[in-house]
Automatic annotation (TrEMBL):
Residues 1-42, 213-233 are annotated as: Disordered. Residues 16-42 have a biased composition (Low complexity). Signal peptide: none annotated. Keywords: Methyltransferase, Transferase. Gene3D superfamilies: Vaccinia Virus protein VP39. It comes from Purpureocillium lilacinum (Paecilomyces lilacinus). InterPro entries: SAM-dependent_MTases_sf. This is SAM-dependent methyltransferase. It comes from the Eukaryota. One of its GO terms (biological process) is methylation.
Length: 348
């Protein structure tokens, strides 16, 4: 999920900016004070997402189920091969992308005996995360190195079938490189809204076959001509799309608190209809449950709450505390149990 690709009205997936001031304009500010202030700001920036596993209301079991629906492993009974490219637009630190890569690595490991018996290994799967938050991208690269080893970072020279993970600092809207699978969770705002996001995703995903491959050129290059996969070996391109919706008709207070004059989501039925209107087949729908929402909202504040306990007198602490209290109030009073979050597996 994109952290701050744009800065819309504060929402559950695009929270109130809470960067601490580090002004050096006062006459009695020393170099030492400036360094301390910048250090505090950097620490707070890390604290903002420190307690989150996913930057959306999503549990680990739910995430694993969604990854399974992306069908990243080959299906011999259906005559398909493994998709070779996955992109996450607005990835943040890419936790879902990393888990998808880990699932492919695990499947590759368990099937290694087939390779030893003479069957050629499948092509390596490349995973690419795209975002504009440098700190979150660095977090993703560190996690990739820790969990996937030396093949993370996009080493295409590795001849093995183990997955590679690359994080790219670029706006989601600039990404035109085709992929067999795409992920876009809570990042439609970075692509102009729900329908523009669905249209953009349609331009970059492509079916695959045992003989087709996609270019691995730069993020902003135009996609190559589409291959025409054999019907017997082709597989539909799939997208995991995450978006907000209203579970019930919202009171005016909820709409104002969350969206102001920005685009307001519709119902789940409206969201599914929009996907179909844009040419997508909806393969699977699931929604965040109340426990996932409560955990997400609490974790989105808890890292900064702990920071405030450790730095109670820091510059901007009172304003940050006020913002966190307001967000907590808005959630509990206005949109808890009213705002929903859907995860859709789309194909074309």
């Amino acid at each position: 999920m994109a952290a701050d690709e744009q800065t819309p009205t504060p929402t559950p997936t695009n929270p109130v900016p809470t960067t601490m001031a580090t002004s050096t304009s006062t006459s009695n500010t020393t170099a030492g004070n400036t360094s301390t202030s910048n250090s505090n700001s950097n620490t707070l920036s890390q604290a903002k997402y420190a307690d989150l596993t996913f930057n959306s209301p999503l549990s680990a079991p739910h995430a694993d189920a969604l990854i399974a629906h992306l069908a990243l492993s080959p299906s011999p009974s259906a005559g398909t091969t493994t998709p070779t490219s996955v992109v996450d637009l607005g990835c943040g630190w890419g936790e879902l992308l990393l888990r998808a890569a880990e699932s492919v690595a695990a499947a590759s490991s368990t099937s290694s005996s087939s390779s030893h018996s003479g069957e050629a290994p499948g092509a390596a799967v490349t995973f690419t995360g795209v975002d504009t938050d440098a700190a979150l991208l660095d977090r993703g690269r560190l996690l990739a190195a820790q969990r996937l080893g030396s093949n993370s970072g996009g080493d295409s020279s590795n001849a093995s079938a183990s997955p590679s993970v690359t994080f790219v600092d670029a706006p989601a809207s600039s990404w035109t490189q085709p992929a067999h699978r795409a992920i876009c969770i809570g990042s439609s705002h970075a692509l102009g809204g729900t329908r523009p996001a669905l249209q953009h995703l349609a331009r970059i995903v492509a079916p695959y076959s045992s003989s087709s491959s996609l270019s691995s050129s730069s993020a902003t290059s135009a996609p190559p001509p589409s291959a025409s996969p054999s019907p017997s070996t082709s597989s539909y391109a799939r997208v995991l799309f995450g978006e907000m919706f209203w579970q019930v008709s919202p009171p005016p207070e909820a709409t104002r608190a969350l969206f102001g004059d920005d685009e307001v989501p519709g119902s789940l039925a409206d969201l599914v209809a929009a996907c179909r209107d844009e040419g997508w087949t909806v393969l699977h729908v699931s929604v965040a449950d109340q426990a996932e929402w409560d955990d997400f909202e609490s974790r989105h504040r808890s890292g900064q709450r702990r920071w405030l306990l450790e730095h109670p007198g820091s510059e901007g602490a009172d304003e940050l505390r006020r913002q966190l209290d307001q967000r907590e109030h808005d959630y509990l009073a206005h949109y808890r149990g009213i705002l929903g979050f859907a995860f859709l597996i789309l194909a074309r």
